[in-house]
Amino acid sequence: MSADACVFCNPSGETVVWSDARCRVLHVTDAGFVGFCRVVWNEHVTEFSDLDEADRNHVMKVVVAVERSLRSLLSPHKMNVASLGNQTPHLHWHVIPRYRDDSRYPDPIWAAPRREPAARALPGDFAAKLRNAIASAVA
Amino acid sequence: MSADACVFCNPSGETVVWSDARCRVLHVTDAGFVGFCRVVWNEHVTEFSDLDEADRNHVMKVVVAVERSLRSLLSPHKMNVASLGNQTPHLHWHVIPRYRDDSRYPDPIWAAPRREPAARALPGDFAAKLRNAIASAVA
Fold this sequence. Notes:
2 copies of one chain form a homodimer. With about 140 residues, chain A is of the alpha+beta class. Chain A is about 25% helix and about 20% strand. Chain A has a 5-stranded antiparallel beta sheet, with helices on one face. The interface of A and B includes residues 48, 79, 84, 87 and 108 of A. Strand 4 of chain A pairs antiparallel with strand 4 of chain B, so a sheet runs across the interface.
């Protein structure tokens, strides 16, 4: 896939929660997986191992900031983190709070559903709280 | 889950390719996903974000060493990396070479199969070559 055809190089309708010069954090508004975020590397790079050590440590620092912020704000039962990119080969990390009563638990979110997910609401001002928590953790 | 009941605290039948004091690399012998490896943190820790920065950078250095070694040895179409742990909440990273003709591509390996996977053999002395490549990369 060329950068021209890449949805992360040509974003449309992204909800950017936090960003710096190298990467950005998106809130994925998925009613079934509340709090789902993505950390997108701004440059069009395919694999995590295409980054040098300083950039890898930076993006993982942001991933961990998102993970810790989501744990603090949402108290999930487990966190899932994944960099797949088979459909969109532009480096991004999924950071997903998981709950025992979500549709796939304990399977990965990409497995077949096991149940109707429990309704779950985000705290008020979730995006602002998440942005502040990430900014504090990355600083 | 207590450490007593944890398969990574009480391993049985693991194929350890490489290890150091903090973590170990397992070769998962899965005929459908040839070259599949796991990087297991030795201590019973649940989440990636439970580690401090030095330990996180170390485990990701090993993950990247595995990813680069697998790319070099197997030339997959894509690499997938994930830390889920819903079933076994002891920190481990899946590092999975993906091919266009594997059973799920381009879906994650946990999705429903799309096709019978193409037969694929590992190079001779795969484990020894992988061990050497990881050792060189981590050194």
